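Incident review: delayed structure delivery

Summary: a single-chain prediction request sat in the queue longer than the usual turnaround. Root cause was a stuck worker, restarted by the on-call engineer. No data loss occurred. The affected request and its eventual output are reproduced below so the record is complete for anyone auditing the incident later.

Affected input:
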Amino acid sequence: MARIRLRLRTGQVIVPEFDNVPVTIIRLVIKVRLQLPDSSFMKTREAIFDTGAPLSMLPKAVWSPLKRKVDTDNAFVGGIARRKVCRVHCAIGTVHGFFLDDEGNQSQTHPLPAFLAHTDRAPLIIGMGGLLPHFRVSSTMPTMRHGWRSDSPCPHGSVRLRKAGFVRLKKGTNVLKAMVPTIEKEKGMDLRGIVLMPVR
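Output delivered after worker restart:
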């Protein structure tokens, strides 16, 4: 049974909402192909893999051409903010698709329960909650100290792990020692140790 390797993408954003303070965004991503009505599959897309999402999220341009079953067309979903302006109007239904990675591994086709957004401003998200009957997420790394891998190609830039060392973080009279890696260029990092495993 194929193990699908996930990727870790990072980038830095500087926006007025964060008072122009640079913030590093880290996202776990997965490649997916979704099924069309004629049983063929659309081109490969990269989606955010959200371990805390109960369902997947598909923007309208993605789900409109898909084979799908809709349970309701009048639902709303939001994030941390509870305000109405932050909610996305959507349908709730099921599409089908399979996962793949850069090493040629491919899963079987599975149903994907999803929020089908009535807008293209929603991100493409694969929610772990809808996959629990079929998959589990596993980390094969022995320790996080060795988690940042630099031995595989990165499409958006090179990553090199310098020597990891202890840093001293002072808070009042207390001193905390923490092991941290020093990383050059934080784009396109590939965390080879995280995989999506089929449930037997």
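Verification: The longest helix spans residues 60-63.
Action items: add queue-age alerting; document worker restart procedure.
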